[in-house]
Amino acid sequence: GGGIILSKSYALYETKKEYNVIKGTVPDFNPNDIKLAFMVNNTKINDMPFPNKNGGHTGESVTCEGNVTASWDNNTWGLININNPDNVSKIKCTINFTSYKEELLNGIDPVLTDELVPIIINDNGKAIKANPDVKWYSYGNKEWANAVILTDDGKNKSFVNGAEIPEEYIESYFVWIPKYSYQLFDLGDYPSIGKDELADNSRAINIKFGTMDTKDGEINECTTPNKSKNIGNCKLGNYMTHPAFISFGVNGLWVGKYKVGIDSTNSNKTLIKPNLDLKKVSGSFTAYQESFNYKREKLDSHLIKNTEWGAIAYLTSSIYGKCNGGVCENLTELYTYKTGSPITVSTTGNYTGIYDMSMASPEYVMALTADKNGEPIYTSGFTIENFPKDSKYYDMFVYGETWDMNRGILGDATSELGPFSEIGGNHSSWYKKSIAYFPSATYAFIIRGKGNLYSFERIPNDTSASYSFRIVLAVK
């Protein structure tokens, strides 16, 4: 069998589920036989081979029979510090590994629940049930983690790891956006709109993944203001934790891989799947209500916020999304009213990304402007009675007019996209011609993604227009 090196004196040979070093078959071998077994997260896994060094596992502890002690070295991927005081001739040790984690993410790997089933999407676009104990995502390779929620019929099925999950048993797809800080490239200080034609000011954004929030006083960091028209103590070049992860106190967000689609047999059912007609609703309240009620109790479902849109956009404009060698590719605009394909509209340029964020049909986000007293302008179906009581479910801009371009929240992909121009309609300098209109008293709510990932636009308070929407899960 194998040939996995334990140390200078020990080599590993594979039988079926335990791994033997056989006396006399290895040159200069220590006069003891060593048998290794393993567990993952303190559980014996019967359908996987011994973890390999590049598989994402970490050896956490070693337990040996009798008085034998040893340690596991994750660098040499072998036993070290073997102590055999009784000089027993056959040693058996069990290595406990922690499950797959990507070192790059620094502890903010996907959070799974009973309802969220991890999947790998193969080259044919099929959902394959993933074994979460082995490598199933790699943000370093632009392979974002995906999970599905099954239909009621699907939950009654037993899908083994590696098996295809047919579309008929999938209710919704989600993609994990890990918590990160990003290097501030613009402070959004644009009190008025420039009149000159703009150069393309889009760029690659530097990102660091991790659990800790940035703080004032730390070298090259600042505390996240998370307020409209407020930069706190932040300076250009500082790293700042993206606000999308602070409101909910989570290490990441599960974002609907697609906009919500129409179930042809049940219009009241929420489906987040490819190749469906877009579900359009009139008014932000209707979009908020369906999103909030989708998986409210266990998964804290809600209508995507403007800051959450920004978190996806900035991750897309990084080396983990659509950027290579400092050059970033814009999302292809899709003139269709169906969810999904082709992969050119994916935030990664492959099957693992998020779709439908650059379409002819924009989508509601949960963000609005305040009145002169700092209170929400209740419109688009909202009233003082049904507006969310918890501010974590919405973003709010200070009062102003559409051309007051400094009212954004750092991280929400609005004010930071300047300079701005009025030529040919208000637009930002990112990929040029990205629509750029802040909400105002008579256009209180905001929509995103009309023809461009970075477009933002206000809608009239009395609008009867219908727009699509997207659901996010804040799982702790």
Layout: helices, strands, pairs:
Elements: E1 4-5, E2 11-14, E3 19-21, E4 33-40, E5 58-64, E6 69-73, E7 78-83, E8 90-98, E9 117-121, E10 127-129, E11 146-150, H1 152-155, E12 170-178, E13 180-183, E14 207-209, E15 239-241, E16 252-256, E17 281-282, H2 284-294, H3 296-299, E18 301-303, H4 306-316, E19 323-324, E20 327-328, E21 363-369, E22 395-397, E23 420-421, E24 427-428, E25 434-435, E26 445-448, E27 456-459, E28 466-467, E29 471-473
Parallel strand pairs: 4-8, 21-22
Antiparallel strand pairs: 1-2, 2-3, 3-4, 5-8, 6-7, 9-10, 9-11, 11-12, 12-16, 13-14, 13-15, 16-29, 17-28, 18-29, 19-20, 21-26, 23-24, 24-25, 26-27
Written overview of the protein:
- The chain is mainly β and 476 residues long.
- 6% of the residues lie in helices and 25% in strands.
- It contains 4 helices and 29 strands.
- The strands form 8 sheets. The chain has a 7-stranded antiparallel sheet with strand order 10-9-11-12-16-29-18. Strands 1-2-3-4-8-5 form a 6-stranded mixed sheet, with no helix packed on it.
- The N terminus is likely disordered.
Helix run count: 4
Distance between the termini: 42 Å
Residue fraction in strands: 25-35%
Largest sheet: 7 strands, antiparallel
Computed Rg:
26 Å
Taking pLDDT < 50 over at least 5 consecutive residues as the criterion, the unreliable ranges are: 1-31
Lateral strand order in the biggest sheet: 10-9-11-12-16-29-18
